[in-house]
Amino acid sequence: MSSVTVYARVGCPYCDMAKALLRRKNVAFEEIDIGREPARRPEMIERAGGRTTVPQIFIDGRHIGGCDDLHALDAAGGLDPLLAA
């Protein structure tokens, strides 16, 4: 199974929707709460190519993007193969 990392913040509805999709697919993921760990925010921005919004999602180190990007990838049939790798 792939390694999934989600940078998120408590109270963010987009974060909740992205995590819900991953949970529906029974995917274990590491959640990094940048609200509780603000020192990790620069790390997220660097890894995400300058994006500053949450969530930012990575699968096996590959930047997927935010919630809309994750759902679009799933709708296009590209998420399951990444998760199965």
From TrEMBL:
PROSITE patterns: GLUTAREDOXIN_1 (PS00195), GLUTAREDOXIN_2 (PS51354). CDD domains: GRX_GRXb_1_3_like. GO terms for molecular function: glutathione disulfide oxidoreductase activity. Keywords: Cytoplasm, Disulfide bond, Electron transport, Redox-active center, Transport. GO terms for cellular component: cytoplasm. Signal peptide: none annotated. It comes from the Bacteria. One of its GO terms (biological process) is cell redox homeostasis. It holds the Pfam family Glutaredoxin. NCBIfam families: GRX_bact (TIGR02181). Belongs to the glutaredoxin family. Has a glutathione-disulfide oxidoreductase activity in the presence of NADPH and glutathione reductase. Reduces low molecular weight disulfides and proteins. This is Glutaredoxin. It comes from Methylopila jiangsuensis. The lineage of its organism: Bacteria, Pseudomonadati, Pseudomonadota, Alphaproteobacteria, Hyphomicrobiales. The gene is grxC.
